[in-house]
């Protein structure tokens, strides 16, 4: 077997997990929708059918104060059991196991009834929490036990107690948020009391033959956070309290250190789990940026953990485990950790999905099934939209020819993979390349087609010819120091030493990232973000590391405000912070005047300035390439326009891939 450790069963005594994979907890937004539990059931059923060992649901509050927002998922009465039974029955039908996460958000709650150990507001919530009284703490413990009992009645195989990531239990553990002077604060024993008593109460409520996972924070990544010695002490107490397994928690939500985004090295935190392993006898679960079976196997083979948790990778491909076991790893649709359709959606109050797999959380809506009529389809352009359309059409049984004028698949996606923080995009292009071949798509690279080559030859034509950089309309735009972002990223021109970037959207941020010349190994990542490899400093943080920039960079935008975040809601702060740490000049409200030998002349903050640069990179937007579509329509050929060719706004692979899939399902 290719991955013997990953596919080794785990005997828990009263039950056995068929392999060492866990689908980690992830809120989808389906939980709160009308008929959402039925959709959630189908979502988890596909993952169970795909072979994952154990599924952990998104967080479910044990009481109303613990809800993340008004109306969020809650289990506090028998009347709510029926909806959960839809989920558990669907998973069990496919031979899977599922645990419900019990999550009390504490001061992270986005509502006026939030509670916490102390009345200290979180930096990511506008609400100041009410400090729990001792009687309210006792009731909260009882509420956790009641939720666990109801979960068992609903058919779950276990529960996960969320004790990390800065939520309520974690808030009690550290002095940063626990400034109590009673029996629930002060000493480490008092601060750990809530976690231990919840574990004991839950075990008493559910009996022995029921999985209890406790997610324990091993690396808070916030000032005045915990240290490893305290985590070991808690883990040992939790083991005595009857916890079945310990899951690893990495980083609070308010931490200013990236822990799951694509710039984080794969498997970056398994060493943290390994540090706990000698001190407990129950199984440990490693988490974060484990997105291939090779990474999972290495972590298990090295003895870092007993199981691996993968949430977003199973969003990207529900058949991840089945494909790995069958020797078809090349066919796995790999998570690229972009966060654009999963976490970004959740934090915007939308239903989660996946950039590389638009079917995620839409399984009942986007169903790929054999077409009633086999058609001959031409797709012109092999960017994200064209690739998605061609593959989906072929999976539905159509005869598909994919034309690409360039020498490789990917379009703007292929360009983006050259950015260090987007190297994972290579996995998406690998997936499409393999799957196009597997489904029999006729791929013709270096082929620029004319309307006459298509009209009358195909039942449907799909024009996905993408975009081209918008020309810069500015005096001196033809100066030798002016280059397009495409030429720079592709390596057609060398990067300058003093570089001004016109445009601070996603592409401008990518160019700045490329110019920083970062290629983080694990050691470099830990050092760059001041993470303590010894886990002895509070919160696991070292003093900030000084960075000496290799280049002087200006990132400029016309609109006012702070440039440098890019389009990602949950990753924008990482980009901006990284640029600031590398001393990139971030200028908003810029009026561009001209370019000459002296540099780029602008008006900034009401003052005329000259950016003394030796290179100006133009990231001033794109325009659609859609002439072919109009020509085909004039020739009475059925033609459809998708992706950037239809709308050249901020480049959006998420929209392009879903649009391509939806169109293909209409044929």
From TrEMBL:
Domain of life: Bacteria
Domain NADH:flavin oxidoreductase/NADH oxidase N-terminal, chain residue ranges per copy: 6-329
Record's keyword annotation contains Metal-binding: yes
InterPro entries found in the cross-reference section: Aldolase_TIM, FAD/NAD-bd_sf, FAD/NAD-binding_dom, NADH:flavin_oxidoreductase, OxRdtase_FMN_N
Gene3D superfamilies: Aldolase class I, FAD/NAD(P)-binding domain, NAD(P)-binding Rossmann-like Domain
Cofactors demanded by this protein: FMN; [4Fe-4S] cluster
Family named by the database record: In the N-terminal section; belongs to the NADH:flavin oxidoreductase/NADH oxidase family.
Name of the featured protein: NADPH-dependent 2,4-dienoyl-CoA reductase
């Amino acid at each position: 077997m290719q991955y013997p450790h990953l596919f080794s069963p785990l005997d828990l005594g009263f039950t056995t997990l068929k392999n060492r994979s866990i689908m980690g907890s992830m809120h989808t937004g389906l939980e709160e929708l009308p008929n959402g539990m039925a959709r959630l059931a189908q979502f988890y059923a596909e993952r169970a059918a795909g072979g994952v060992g154990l599924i952990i649901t998104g967080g479910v509050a044990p009481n109303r104060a613990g809800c993340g927002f008004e109306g969020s998922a809650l289990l506090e009465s028998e009347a709510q059991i029926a909806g959960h039974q839809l989920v558990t029955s669907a998973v069990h039908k496919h031979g899977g196991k599922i645990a419900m996460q019990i999550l009390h958000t504490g001061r992270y709650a986005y509502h006026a009834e939030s509670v916490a150990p102390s009345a200290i507001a979180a930096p990511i919530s506008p609400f100041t929490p009410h400090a729990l009284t001792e009687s309210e703490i006792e009731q909260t413990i009882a509420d956790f036990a009641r939720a666990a009992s109801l979960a068992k009645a609903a058919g779950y195989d276990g529960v996960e107690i969320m004790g990390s990531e800065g939520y309520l239990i974690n808030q009690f553990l550290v002095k940063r948020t626990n400034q109590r002077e009673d029996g629930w604060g002060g000493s480490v024993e008092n601060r750990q009391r809530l976690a231990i008593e919840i574990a004991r109460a839950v075990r008493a409520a559910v009996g022995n033959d029921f999985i209890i996972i406790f997610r324990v924070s091993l690396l808070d990544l916030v000032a005045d956070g915990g240290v490893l010695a305290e985590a070991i002490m808690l883990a040992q107490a939790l083991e005595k309290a009857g916890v079945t397994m310990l899951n690893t928690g990495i980083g609070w939500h308010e931490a200013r250190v990236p822990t799951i985004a694509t710039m984080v090295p794969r498997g970056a935190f398994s060493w943290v789990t390994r540090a706990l392993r000698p001190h407990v006898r129950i199984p440990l679960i490693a988490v974060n940026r484990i997105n291939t079976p090779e990474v999972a196997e290495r972590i298990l083979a090295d003895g870092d953990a007993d199981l691996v948790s993968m949430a977003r990778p199973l969003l990207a491909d529900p058949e991840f485990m089945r494909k790995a076991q069958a020797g078809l790893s090349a066919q796995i649709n790999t998570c690229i950790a972009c966060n654009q359709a999963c976490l970004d959606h959740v934090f915007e109050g939308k239903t989660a999905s996946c950039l590389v797999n638009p079917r995620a959380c839409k399984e009942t809506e986007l169903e790929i099934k054999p077409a009633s009529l086999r058609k001959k389809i031409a797709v012109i352009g092999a960017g994200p939209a064209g690739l998605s359309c061609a593959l989906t059409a072929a999976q539905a049984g159509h005869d598909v020819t994919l034309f690409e004028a360039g020498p490789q698949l990917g379009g703007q996606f292929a360009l983006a993979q050259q950015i260090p923080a987007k190297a994972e995009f290579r996995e998406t292009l690998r997936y499409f390349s393999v799957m196009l071949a597997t489904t029999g798509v006729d791929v013709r690279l270096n082929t620029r087609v004319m309307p006459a080559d298509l009209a009358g030859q195909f039942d449907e034509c799909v024009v996905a010819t993408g975009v081209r950089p918008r020309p810069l309309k500015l005096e001196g735009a033809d100066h030798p120091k002016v280059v397009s972002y495409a030429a720079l990223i592709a390596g057609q021109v060398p990067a300058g030493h003093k570089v001004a970037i016109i445009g601070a959207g996603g592409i401008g941020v990518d160019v700045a990232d490329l110019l920083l010349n970062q290629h983080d190994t694990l050691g470099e990542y830990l050092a760059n973000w001041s993470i303590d490899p010894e886990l002895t400093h509070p919160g696991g943080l070292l003093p900030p590391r000084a960075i000496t920039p290799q280049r002087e960079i200006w990132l400029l935008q016309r609109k006012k405000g702070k440039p440098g975040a890019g389009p990602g809601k949950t990753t924008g702060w990482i980009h901006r912070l990284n640029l600031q740490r590398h001393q990139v000049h971030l200028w908003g409200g810029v009026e561009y005047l001209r370019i000459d030998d002296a540099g780029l002349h602008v008006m900034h903050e009401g003052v005329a300035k000259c950016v003394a640069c030796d290179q100006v990179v133009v990231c001033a937007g794109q325009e659609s390439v859609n002439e072919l579509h109009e020509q085909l329509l004039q020739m009475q050929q059925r033609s459809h326009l998708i992706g950037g060719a239809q709308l050249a706004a901020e480049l959006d692979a998420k929209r392009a891939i879903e649009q391509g899939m939806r169109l293909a399902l209409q044929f």
